[in-house]
Design a protein that fits this description.
The complex is a heterodimer of chains A (107) and B (363). Chain A is mainly α. Helices cover 56% and strands 0% of the residues of chain A. Chain B is mainly α and 363 residues long. Classes of the chains: A mainly alpha (107), B mainly alpha (363). The interface between A and B is large, with 47 and 56 residues.
Chain lengths: 107, 363
């Protein structure tokens, strides 16, 4: 099948790795609900805890979900994934004039 | 404030049914957010409140799930070259000011008119914003569809052309998405209104995305993707404000995030399969349907304030249930359109690849 031929390598190992990490984090959140709620709602300096927790989840679980869809074969349209160089996009940048090469020969 | 907050806060007990419900609502909310840049919050907050979560905790927990979700969505869409980080950050900073001002206005209305007054203000703001902006966006999407020019590059609106033509020395900044320099002085009021909208109706994107598209001149795809950067900046500041008062229930944040991160990745990928006008269509359709949902709540608050005849308990219950059902329908319809468009786009791409391979004789 043509579709099988064009399939790229799927990130199964990465998905499992981040999936396990995500399960550990979620397991901890649900197992220690009381403790987490007590500390995370103290306010003042403890306000950093929910923010840090949200960042941690976005990193771990975000990677897992990304790899999850890739493993299922659901990915963005291939032509859309274009890494554009920001330099190439700049239209407002004025090219600096290059010095003209001059020959300085002593006769 | 902290003591008051602690008196108000009552954290619910989570069971499997609650967890599954929040996960599912988070997934659909994330899917729509990934596609149009915003939109999940207006169902998530009432969804949490329906489980018995106090309003303030629901808003705070929703806000705290919003910024990491927006971050993941923005990073994903940046891979497709759809995000204008500079515009998003500048817009987001001024929007943050709008969030704080909007929250203060809310508090003052609540003090003066009580809960019913505050709810009435939110519902009227919802109806006015959605009626004006939603009908405009939907009309534009339908017009593009009917013109048959869905594949052509989007035209910059007249207002945007005028905004881009104004040169105010010392305030001009070049933005990649606009392919033009625009004065920051134009961005400030738009961003402020977006922030106020986020603080009032919980969805800043209903002002933010149309502003980016129609007033500044960003293409639909870039406008909705840049809104994710704005949502990240606004959400981070707002979450910190609520967390300072101990109002974030991190368990709720984590569960919603579990579903919404699946959804936002899918929604972001969906944008690569659809024509640009689809973003406007989904956004406009959701806005117009939600408008009816909020309009149903207005008589309830008017009755509570004594401005119209009191309503029976059964009528109030029927109005509230209908309102929530319409809101959930709007979100599900959006999710359905996105998934359908994505499915069709993927099928077309696969067929094109096979066709190409057959032509080249690779098979």
């Amino acid at each position: 099948m043509a579709a099988d031929r064009i399939k790229s390598k799927k990130p199964v190992v990465k998905m499992v790795l981040f999936g396990v990490c995500s399960a550990i984090v979620y397991g901890a959140v649900l197992s220690y609900q009381g403790l987490i709620t007590a500390y995370f709602t103290r306010g003042a300096l403890y306000a950093a805890l929910p923010i840090a927790g949200a960042f941690t989840l976005s990193y771990v679980h975000g990677h897992f979900t990304g790899y999850f869809w890739s493993v299922l074969g659901i990915e963005a349209k291939k032509s859309a994934v274009v890494r554009q160089s920001p330099e190439a996009e700049r239209t407002d940048r004025i090219e600096r004039p290059q010095p003209r090469p001059r020959l300085r020969a002593q006769l | 404030m902290q003591d008051v907050a602690h008196e108000v806060v009552k954290f619910i007990d989570l069971n499997y049914a609650n967890i599954l419900y929040l996960f599912a609502v988070g997934f659909v909310g994330g899917l729509v957010s990934g596609f149009i840049g915003s939109g999940g919050a207006f169902v998530l907050t009432p969804g949490m409140m329906s489980l018995g979560v106090p309003g303030l905790v629901a808003v705070a927990s929703n806000m705290c799930h919003k910024f990491p979700k927006a971050l993941v969505g923005a990073l994903k869409r940046a891979k497709y070259g759809q995000v204008d980080v500079k515009l998003g950050i500048i817009f987001g900073i001024f929007a943050e000011a709008g969030v704080f001002y909007g929250a203060t206005v809310q508090e003052n209305i609540k003090k003066a008119f009580g809960d019913a007054g505050s709810n009435l203000y939110v519902s009227v703001a919802f109806v006015v914003i959605l009626a004006v902006v939603g009908s405009f966006v939907l009309r534009d999407a339908i017009k593009t569809y009917r013109s048959g020019k869905t594949d052509e590059e989007e035209k910059t609106s007249k207002i945007a052309r005028w905004v881009q033509s104004i040169n105010i020395p010392g305030t001009m900044v070049y933005f990649r998405s606009l392919k033009a320099k625009v004065s920051v002085l134009f961005i400030i009021p738009l961003a402020f209104a977006t922030g106020m909208s986020a603080a009032t109706i919980a969805v800043g994107g209903f002002i933010g995305v149309p502003s980016l598209i129609y007033v500044l001149g960003a293409p639909g795809l870039m406008g909705s993707a840049t809104e994710l950067v704005i949502a990240f900046v606004m959400g981070l500041g707002g979450s910190f404000k609520y967390a300072l008062h101990g109002l974030v229930d991190f368990r709720l944040t984590a569960i919603i995030l579990a579903g919404s991160l699946f959804g936002i990745q899918l929604g972001a990928m969906g944008t690569t399969y659809v024509k640009p006008f689809m973003i406007k269509f989904v956004m406009g359709a959701i806005m117009v349907i939600v408008l009816f949902s909020r309009a149903l709540m207005i008589p309830i608050y008017l009755a509570q304030l004594g401005l119209i005849h009191p309503m029976s308990e059964t009528t109030v219950k029927a109005f509230k249930s209908s309102s929530f059902a319409i809101m959930a329908f709007a979100l599900l319809l959006g999710a359905f359109i996105i998934l359908r468009a994505m499915w069709q786009g993927r099928r077309a791409e696969r067929q094109a690849t096979i066709h190409e391979a057959l032509e080249k004789g690779n098979i």
